[in-house]
Design brief:
Order of helices and strands: HHHHHHEHHEHHEEHEHE
Largest sheet: 6 strands, mixed
Keywords: Membrane, Nucleotidyltransferase, Transferase, Transmembrane, Transmembrane helix
Distance between the termini: 40 Å
Catalytic activity: 2 GTP = 3',3'-c-di-GMP + 2 diphosphate
Strand order of the largest sheet: 1-3-4-2-5-6
EC number: 2.7.7.65
InterPro entries: Diguanylate_Cyclase, GGDEF_dom, Nucleotide_cyclase, Rev_trsase/Diguanyl_cyclase
Bound molecules: guanosine-5'-triphosphate
Strand content: 5-15%
GO molecular function: diguanylate cyclase activity
Length: 390
């Protein structure tokens, strides 16, 4: 599956066309509509289900007002086609993946729906006002629901207004006064509907932008809360909060050739660096150390600063050979002066403890084991690694 599309809020809030209520940038409009599609599908699904259920109820009441044969048979066929169209749409709509396909399908369904509804109006015994009321309610709820884009609302409104006016004019049993009122009613409903539609689409887009910006801000805050401000490495809180994921990963890899490895790293004689060259140089060393580690692990692996000059490195899906090879390489790079802090007279060295993370481990058990290995490395003379015993 592709990555979920998002609107880039850094490049400024995208503006909205005033009358057609879509984003001015077509790509942003496309991303927005793809994200909105699941919600729209749910709405249309609900609407179709409502029509499919309510029409049989109307069929029962129709018998009271419908004209005699052949209109009764006509009405029955018309209602059955309605229900059939809704059922087909109910089956198809959950599978629609593109907003353009969705629009085309919706337009076809609504077209069939209104043609049948308009034809159905002839079957009522002069009770056109009742039919019109039902019709107007459906139109208004469609406009206001956001199912239709402003473009679709306008097309349907024009088509429906023209046909409805023609029907009103051809109805012999409506007097002139009633005809004028009906036409006036349709004009007002459709006009109000288009305005509702524009307002609705603008609101939905503005709300979407607001949500995007809030989502971005909350991600920024989360990242700030989980990062160490000096080195930008992940911090101890992040390690604690994500340990559940680490446990899950360890269980998943339990019977695998590859597993998870925790490495504790502690820079040797760091106090001396601070004392001899000052805190600023000490800070520089810490930043350069994190950069060097990050450059020598994969992007899925993680570096956490636990405090001071103490770090944890989590290697994912690797073997003991790879874990030790990576640490050996880092030790070699440090000894060759690759840290690149010019103020220092001799290379900075570091001691490491390495241990696999087991499915049965808790945060404490793994930290204790890896700390013991690190302590042994320090005790053995520093600038080396020790594998923790299980
Ligand atoms: N520059 C700088 N120093 C820090 C920071 N946090 C802790 N320190 C210093 O790191 C030093 C840690 O010293 P020790 O715990 O004695 O460790 P060490 O000198 O590296 O000795 P060993 O670990 O035994 O090799 C202390 O002097 C702390 O003040 C920091 O953010 N920046």
């Amino acid at each position: 599956m592709g990555e979920k599309p998002t609107i880039d809020m850094e490049s400024g809030s995208p503006s909205i066309h005033r009358f057609i209520a879509v984003f001015k940038d077509p790509e942003k409009e496309h991303i927005f509509r793809q994200e909105e599609l699941p919600k729209q599908r749910r709405l249309v699904f609900g609407l179709c289900a409502f029509i499919a259920i309510s029409i049989p109820i109307f069929m029962l009441s129709d018998f009271m007002v419908v004209k005699p044969a052949p209109w009764d048979a006509f009405l029955l066929i018309q209602r059955l086609i309605h229900i059939g169209a809704c059922v087909i749409f109910l089956l198809v709509i959950p599978r629609v993946r593109r907003s353009s396909t969705y629009d085309a399908l919706l337009f076809c369904t609504l077209f069939v729906f209104f043609v049948l509804l308009e034809l159905g109006s002839f079957t009522f015994l002069g009770d056109y006002a009742l039919y019109a009321l039902f019709d107007i309610i459906i139109m208004l709820s469609l406009y206001a629901s956001g199912i239709l884009t402003v473009k679709l609302s306008t097309i349907i409104c024009l088509y429906h207004s023209v046909v409805s006016v023609l029907i009103v004019l051809t109805l012999k049993d409506l007097n002139v006064h009633a005809q004028i009122m009906m036409i006036f009613g349709y004009a007002l409903t459709n006009g109000a509907g288009i305005l509702l539609s524009i307002t609705h689409h603008k609101n939905v887009r503005q709300q979407y932008l607001l949500q995007q910006s809030l989502r971005g801000k909350s991600l920024q805050l989360k990242s700030l809360a989980y990062r160490d401000s000096l080195t930008n490495a992940l911090n101890r809180r992040s390690f604690q909060d994500h340990f559940r994921d680490i446990e899950k990963m360890a269980s998943r890899l339990e019977h695998n050739d590859k597993g998870l490895f925790m490495i504790a790293a502690d820079i040797d004689f760091f106090k001396e660096i601070n004392d001899n060259f000052g805190h600023d140089v000490g800070d520089k060393v810490l930043r350069a150390f994190v950069r060097l580690i990050e450059a020598n692990i994969r992007s899925v692996d993680k570096v956490y600063r636990f405090g001071g000059e103490e770090f944890m490195i989590l290697l994912q899906e690797c073997t003991i050979e790879t874990a030790t090879a990576r640490v050996e390489k880092i030790i070699k790079l440090l000894n060759s002066g690759s840290l690149g802090v010019e103020e220092l007279e001799k290379p900075v060295t570091c001691s490491f403890g390495i241990t696999p993370v087991l499915a049965s481990d808790t945060i404490d058990s793994v930290c204790i084991r890896v700390d013991e290995a690190l302590y042994a490395a320090k005790k053995n003379g520093r600038n080396q690694y020790v594998l923790g015993s299980l």
